[in-house]
Amino acid sequence: xxxxxxxxxxxLYNDTHLHLAAWHNFFLKNFGMDxxxxxxxxxxxxxxxxxxxxxxxxxxxxxRQVREYEAEKEREYRAAARSDPAxxxxxxxxxEMLDLLVKRGIPFALATASPIENVEFYxxxxxxxxxxxxxxxxxxxxxxxxxxxxxxxxEAARRLNLSPQDCTxxxxxxxxxxxxxxxxxxxxxxxxxxxxxxxxxxxxxxxxILHDFRSFERFL
Length: 220
Hints:
Radius of gyration: 17 Å
Strand content: 5-15%
């Protein structure tokens, strides 16, 4: 493989619990919906915010309401992350792995459904700017079809002057893994923090399953 394309949330950053809490609090505060953790995990982890709102409300929300609600939920998420310094670390082994990619001259990029405000938070508060410039991060701007569509990964590969077939894609969610499959990734690696290992093992297109990045060198 010539390059590596990473998802971010739940992959390079173990923040699924922060999104679960933020979505639960958002729906409870704004709509009186006391969702179970299982329902939040199933419906809100993986899809874009636009798709989540469409799933819950159909076309009843105006574009302006969607933007306002999205901003509110993401503010709550960032506040939760900043509330504890323990939340401001990348996945175990990720810094060392990214340093190794730089040392070996292996190009890499991000494909994340996060909005720009979250990307700026990752660059500054998590120190991601040590490895990534904004031109190597494909984020949610409302221009590309959301995962499981392959558009994010096609664009991330394009920014490296490659096709997804030349790349390893590292993902954690069902929608993200489906996007990698639809992009015809050269290789797919899965982080087992978001969906069950049993489900991951049932997907024949997945080439390897990791818990973190401490032993990632064997895939290079």
